[in-house]
Every structure is written in structure tokens, then in C-alpha cells.
Amino acid sequence: MDHLSSLSDKTISLLFLITVLTNGPIKLYGQVNGVDLIFNSLDLKNCFYSKRNSMYQVTCNNLGMRKIPDNLKNDIQVGYFDGNYLRTLRNDAFEKYPKLSYISLEKSAIQKIDSGAFLHQDNLIALNLHENLIAHLEPNIFENTNLQTLYLGMNELSDEDFNITIDSNINFLDISENHLTRIPNLKHFYYLKYLNVSNNAIVSFGVDEIASFCYLDVLDVTSVELNLKQDHCCELSEWILLKKIKLFPTIKCNNCKITSGNSYISNKTLEIFDECRQAIKMKHNAIKMKKIITYIGLGFIAIIIIVLIIFIYGKKRVYKKSADYKIDESRDFEEHNIDDVDSQSTSQFETRL
User: Fold this and answer.
1) What radius of gyration, in Å, describes the C-alpha atoms of the chain?
2) Do residues 27 and 1 touch, judged by C-beta distance below 8 A?
3) Can you give the pTM of this predicted structure?
């Protein structure tokens, strides 16, 4: 089979014509911009497969699809479904593709996501839902996933409709250009490092609203018209300085005497921050305990296996010794009988003489 180093538009058109004329799919291999491509069919209405960074990808962009196809290869790890008309993500949307770690659904007119749409995605770490029509998310929508990166920019979410209550490993959250009027209440997002709430209707927020993000590195409030009171402004500035958070854009407060003594930061704020730290510590301890229990269980199973092996091996040795003893006993009996026969023969011979 020919290996193509690059595919131009004319080449694709020609090969598509060949596919039509031969009335059947053909498989072609090629490379574009360093990406290995595997075309199962060059029918432009179909998805195509590729491989990049050792990950199998499927691209189904701009195909006018109204649902996720259910006949794709079930070992795909990256799925691009941008520019379609999905409207609703059903509970079984990705059920057949448990290995997906990255899903992109940008500009796909999604209005509703069923609560179990990502239920079987244990390997999901990145999800792109940018520029859709999503107005509500179920509180447990990302339960049983390992989601770490979430793009929700340019949707229709309001404060009440974005309230995820489950523990989450998300560390990157873009929820820009929605209808938020405050920083989302995401106290279970313990590992959040990047938060983008730019271009929302937020006019003010306090330190307590971000203190629960004890790993926060970047906070983007671009194009948010903040109207902070003097004390709140000073407290926020001090917190940003103390926790080394990058704030975009920077805020300017007048007459603030910020020192390392936490002069503006309240005890309540420190308690909220400490709760986040304690929750992370408890989670880590739980993971360690789970590992210890697993190791103990494996060790116990190993001991049982070793005992069984020793028992079986010992039983075989006893059986072998018993068999050997019986053989020796049989030989002794035979030899004794032979001696008796010889003795009787000798006696009879002597009597005759």
C-alpha cells in the first residue's frame, strides 16, 4: 500500500473520485503537518481517523450530525465533533467509547446535556463545550470522570444553572462569556488553578469567594466591571499578593497599606482556605489508605497462594513417600517369600537325603 507524505486538495478530490468509481471504501495512509492520517474512506460526509502522540483520534467536524455516531472504533482516545447540530447529548452518547480522554464539541448547538452523558467516561480528562447554547448543567454531570480541563465559554449559563456539587479534579475552568453575576460557588473544586470568568456580568466579589480555591494560580476577570468597596479592594489585593495569584487585569486600590501581617484578611477567609487544604489532605489520606488496603489484600492473597502451594507440594511429598514405602514393603515381602521358599526347598531336599 502506498504511503503518502502529504495530501493536497486535488489529491483528495482525485482519490474521492476513485472511491466513488470503485463503489467501495479504500484505506489510505498519509501524513499532514506531521500528523499520521488513516483514511478508511474519503467520502467527505464521513469521519476520519488519525494518530497523534500515540493517541487514536477521530475527526467528525462540520458534518451536520444530529447525534454522536455509534459505529466508530471503540478504542478511540480523542474525539472531535465540532460544528455539528447535536442539540442534546443523550445518556448513551459516548457509551461505546470508554477510552476517550479528550472530547471536543465546540459550536455544536448543544442546548441540553443528560445527567449520564459522561457516566462511562472514566478516562475523560479534557472536555471542550465552547460556544454552544447550554443553559443548565446537572450538579453531578461529571461524576465518575477524571475531568481536569473544562471549556464552557460562550454559553447561556447563569448563577443558578452552574452549580456543580461533586468533588472534582478540574484544575482548568473557562466559563467566560456566560450570564454569571458572581464567582461560581465551586467549593469542591479543590485543585482549581486557572479560572476564567471574563466577559460576564460580575460587578463585585470578595476574597471569600476565591479562598476556597487553595491552588488558584490565575484568575481572569477581563472585561468585568468590578465595583469594589475600599476595604474589599484592599483585602483582595492583599490576598492576591499573599497567595501569588496572577489577576487579569490587575486591580488598583487607593490608600491600602498591604503588609505580610494579613491586616485586611479576616479569620473567616483563612478558615475557608484551611478547609480546602484539609479536604485535599483528607482526599490524599483516603487514596493512601485505599492503596494500603489494596496492598494488604494483595499480600493476603499472595500468602494464601503460597500456603496452598506449600500444602499441595507437601501433600505430594507425603504421597510420594507413602508410595515409596509401599514399594519397599512389597519388595521386602517378595524377598521374604523367596527366602521362605528357598528354606522350604532346602529342608525338603535334606529330608529326602
Assistant:
1) 36
2) yes
3) 0.72
